[in-house]
Amino acid sequence: MTTNRMQQPSKSTDAKVMNPADPNPSGKQVNPALKQKPLDLKSKMEGQTRYLHDMNFPGQLIGAIYRSPYAHARIKRINVEKARQVEGVHAVITGDDVPNHKYGPTKFKDWNILAKDRVLFIGDEIAAVAAETREAAEQALALIEVELEPLEGVFDPEDAMASGAPQIHEDVELNRPMKVDVARGDLEEGKKKATIVKGGRYVSNRIYQGHLEPVGAIAFWSEEEGITIWAPSHIPYRAREAYAAGFGLPEDKVRIIVPPIGGSFGAKYVLKVHVIAAALAMVTGRHVKIILDRHEDMITAHPRVPLTFDIEIGADAEGNFVYKDLTVYADAGARVYWSPNVIATACTRADNIYHFHNVKSTGYLVYTNNSPTTCMRGFGNAEMLFAVESVIDEIALELGMDPAELRLKNIVHSGDTTLHGYRLDTCNLDECIEKVKELSGWNRRKELPPYRGLGLAVANHVSGFRAIDPRFDGSTAVIRIKPGGFVEVETGEIELGQGMTMTYARIASRVLGIPEDEILVKSGDTGRYPFGIGTLASRSTVMGGNAVQKAAESLLREIQQLGVQTLGEGAVFEEGVVKHDGKTYSLGDVVDWFRARHAGEELTVKETYVPDTELPDATYFGHPSPNYPFAAHVAEVEVDPDTGRTKVVGYWAVHDSGTILHETMAKSQVLGAVAQGIGWVTMEDLIVQEGKVMNPSMMDYRMPGAKDMPDVQVHFVQEADPHGPFGAKSLGEVALDPVPGAIANAIAHATGRRGQVLPMSAERVWMSLQS
């Protein structure tokens, strides 16, 4: 008999595929409903997965939203009587018809359900319609009469903080809801030690997440159960809390069910469309479905937070960093989504890669009359590293030092406690740098032809972040044996296409010694499954995975004890079966034993993993994550001097993400991240002028395709981390974090011109070559 033995990878090896378990040793037939390998991939490839758009309920109504055409205006009058007379229309609601509680997903409670007195950005929600058909809903929207008095708007964060600027929220002076102040060491002493100082102003732009599945929701209301919302949110418990506050309801009167998610990258956390669908459902007593078309989504998109960095880094004559001085301006737009976490990350995370010794960071989160901004993969770290890694290359150039050697001289190592308190039990960033140099042929930099360049960048990230929710930062898993001997795992974390359910099945399989396709992972229902913070901050593998491992180990002990109780001493559970006196008993037999002793109940265990982390204090000092992944990337580019067009012709990525649980999924994460980074640096730009999105179409918003991708070589330096499931660390976001810096440095090497504004479009590169 064979078992699923997933070999511990050795340090500094290529990732090895963890072999799935062989068929069940007991020979029982596998339930076809549980045949999920490779989970839902086959269903998605064949178009069988039922996303929100595919879901419909009897008597369902179609919802639509009337939005502001102005970036800032006072609402003088709303008349919806004509709209209500349209055949098939069941409800038309305005701000007067809904609760008026201030709420929001963070401590900044600046949301409403519908605008009441003023609109604050183009696309702000003024009224909503529920009708039998989309045509009737659109006809009703056209008949809504709204008189708006345009007001002066402000669209740049620095302008918004100026004295006399229009005040967007009456209780927030200088339009500045948040200021970040971080200081370590003595900045002025550090500046005295600096022989060379480099820096300048770097700008990261708005990026549309570009998820394939449109944004939407279905909602229903009943007096007994309250609000039920079907929504592709990957933080449903936090969303439930915010929505309950918005309606003035207890949390147990809001239930969120998460259907399969067709991509997010940070866009689908907590959204107003969910709340508006719920408000319409409460009025009509029917299911209400709202699906935004791509144009509507893009004009009101909550894109990546655009950041402006004024940065200086100083080094001594030997290349030792002696200080970093930073000021960041972040455009929150008209409401706060997750931008506070983004600017806090930008002001701190990169300081935990290098020994800067003396740092000062000041961050300003600012309201403007642009569409609200939110997080996207990388969460402020990728943006910051674009600036940091660019400046470090400038220092290396001035010193006449190899950029890789300059980094090796200053990076953190295993056993270090970083400037802001991160405790690094494992860190193989030095090996990542050495390996990526080897794979890319780094030493050929001086031999490359004109307009061809190699660029290096490094990155760190977290595996969950304690400050996301100061109240709790762990994860809970429930695991049970079903009749027939099949295993179910329940979690509060969310699958959004990253392969979380396969990872959890693999972890449970490894503990229990049963095939992965006999383990069904369930999540995505706040009314059924355990509480979870959700899928953000690269937390699902480590946080949820540790909980699954802990629960599976507890179940293993329960099975072992039950075997002894039933069969006598010498009974042992291994290779997926109970063995005793030369006989084997399946998990189906175990279920029968347990049910006979417990009045038909299923054998179920519940375990919670609570990490040994420290909430960062008021100065942002703390140990916020169980462990920290690292990466080093090299990009090779070719720039056309006649057009400025940049083509990435080679890419090498080396990662320290602990033990790799699944090589194929891990490599896919890196490949997807590189594609996103190529798009971000060379072409993607959500262009906004005075609050208006100028390219709200997938035809006008250019994203990379297959022909834009080079050959990407991925390598993993594997060392088991003591705080991850079977030694794993996170990978999803750290795979993107170094990409902008690597490509930007490659372009600078190819052209001799340093780009400081994203994207480095053909036009920008061409103009730099003319200067």
Automatic annotation (TrEMBL):
GO terms, molecular function: iron ion binding; oxidoreductase activity
**Where do Polar residues bias regions lie?**
1-12
Q: Which Pfam families does the UniProt entry name for this protein? A: Ald_Xan_dh_C, MoCoBD_1, MoCoBD_2
- Which residues does the UniProt record annotate as the domain Aldehyde oxidase/xanthine dehydrogenase a/b hammerhead? 46-152
Which InterPro entries does the protein's record reference?
A: Ald_Oxase/Xan_DH_a/b, Ald_Oxase/Xan_DH_a/b_sf, Ald_Oxase/xanthine_DH-like, AldOxase/xan_DH_MoCoBD1, AldOxase/xan_DH_MoCoBD2, AldOxase/xan_DH_Mopterin-bd_sf
The name on file for this protein is: Xanthine dehydrogenase family protein molybdopterin-binding subunit
Q: Looking at the record's lineage, which domain of life comes first?
A: Bacteria
Extract the ranges annotated as region (Disordered): 1-37
The upper taxonomy is:
Bacteria, Bacillati, Bacillota, Bacilli, Bacillales
Q: Which Gene3D superfamilies match?
A: Aldehyde oxidase/xanthine dehydrogenase, a/b hammerhead, Aldehyde oxidase/xanthine dehydrogenase, molybdopterin binding domain
PANTHER family to which the protein is assigned, alphabetical? XANTHINE DEHYDROGENASE, XANTHINE DEHYDROGENASE SUBUNIT D-RELATED
